[in-house]
Design brief:
homodimer, 283 residues, Rossmann fold, seven-stranded mixed beta sheet, PH1575-like (chains A, B)
Chain lengths: 283, 283
């Protein structure tokens, strides 16, 4: 999915919100806005919005000297989710369909996203995701594919959210699946890295690799050889979040996308409304 | 109230939304975004956000050749409000406090605003404004001032909204006040001009003047001599909408501001929440 004209305003919003988190002064933030403004003509319409992120966040890093702006917030998100984890695992086990319950939790977790300008209330979100209808709900296709296949590549998204993914992943492990999880190469926004996966203990239950991706999304041909091997050989690929959707939605191989549509541009591309929850198999 | 860092993203949003209304192609809109981007460094932080509008909308006019982009939407807004008008006037007359009821309608009308990216439902808005508490409610001060004073300068805001203002103005006329209404010098966004005032028949019941303002707000010292005379001599000045608030909030003379806080930046300046309704005397 390529950049929409609407994305440009969002880049300016991201600069202001992220500069604030990075502790930049108003004067520095203003300089950042000027720099971004001057670069607008050179941003191609043939890339995904996600691919602009390293430039936007890189600019803030360069001006503030802060190379892991979301470190504290990521840790907080992971801790908050870990606190909720034991009860959510019990609720899942007690539910009529633990696989579906854990999938709903994985969607709920997707709201923890500092890259999309908005606030969130995770407990309210969990509650909502349990009662809300999926707008696109390819759950039957997914369960059929799970029955047939063995190897799953699970492309992770944000800190905090991965704790919820872990509940879903544990359900998939109960079905004797072999799962590899992919994270980003280095810190970008609140996306997960190997460090986050280790922090929540995900690496104790499945293999976790870096996709090699420096953007908050996944462009397979630009990823590491190891990632590409898993990507092409996996029976099932599960992609979490908008950044991965933006970059993987035009791929040739079948992919299951799980996310909440948090921006109008993505919602329009999907053909859903803002706030809708999606489990969609593409291709 | 000066520009906030958050305003810059809004300028880009306005370009995209307005270019669409003006019928610009995606390619032209992209060129507009590039032009705006390049101009960012030259936008001073010492002006009000409203003062950037002539540049933003002028850019769109220049690229599309359309010098009254909102003409059709303004006419629609006026027509829609005129359809609601007879019943609203009856409701007002029947109410316990017609002045307050008509004031609430004037606030409800303020939601008709194409300059603030959002959609609106006017009937829902009217309903809401009848039940919602004002966050700042200087109604007692206003009624005291009305008792004491005779001359009112009423600075209008948007098409459609002025029909609701007319109900409030008629209540003020019943109190034997002398009212002069001020509109913008020429079309800018959906702000009212002499043409709109004449279309709804406002000029039949009060004197309507152009403020001489080319921006969607009012900077008295840059307005016409006629406006400045009324402005300085009026016993009461009533200012509708955010654009007028942004430009008049630091003025020395007492002014009554009536509006709904439709953007975070204005809400922060006022010290209220987004969506709050305000009747505030400043100075």
């Amino acid at each position: 999915m390529n950049i929409y004209l609407e994305c440009f305003s969002c880049f300016f919003k991201q600069i202001v919100e992220t500069a604030k988190i990075a502790g930049a002064s108003p004067e520095t933030t203003r300089e950042l806005l000027n720099e971004l403004g001057k670069s607008i003509p050179s941003i191609s319409m043939d890339i995904t919005p996600t691919e602009v992120s390293p430039y936007v966040y890189g600019l803030i890093e360069r001006y503030t000297g802060n190379t892991d702006i979301y470190k504290t917030l990521k840790k907080k998100s992971n801790q908050l989710a870990l606190e909720l984890y034991p009860n959510l695992e019990i609720d899942t086990a007690k539910s009529a369909n633990p696989l579906l319950t854990s999938l709903r939790l994985a969607v709920a977790g997707n709201v923890i996203d500092y890259g999309v300008p908005s606030s969130f209330d995770i407990e309210k979100e969990i509650e909502e995701c349990f009662h809300k209808e999926f707008t696109i709900f390819d759950f039957e296709l997914l369960t059929t594919d799970i029955k047939k296949g063995k190897n799953i590549l699970y492309i992770l998204d944000n800190a905090g959210e991965i704790v919820f993914d872990m509940i879903f992943i544990k359900e998939l492990l109960k079905l004797k699946k072999e799962i590899v999880c992919a994270v980003r190469e280095k810190p970008i926004i609140n996306d997960v890295t190997l460090e986050d996966a280790a922090y929540i203990g995900l690496d104790k239950i499945v293999k976790v690799i870096s996709s090699g991706s420096p953007i908050p999304g996944t462009i397979p041909k630009k990823c590491s050889d190891e990632f590409q091997q898993y990507y092409h050989n996996a029976d099932i690929v599960i992609s979490k979040g908008q950044g991965n959707y933006e970059t993987l939605s035009n791929e040739k191989r079948p992919i299951y996308f799980i996310f909440k549509a948090k921006c109008q541009v993505v919602a329009r591309h999907v053909g859903c409304n803002l706030g809708d929850i999606i489990l969609m198999r593409k291709n």
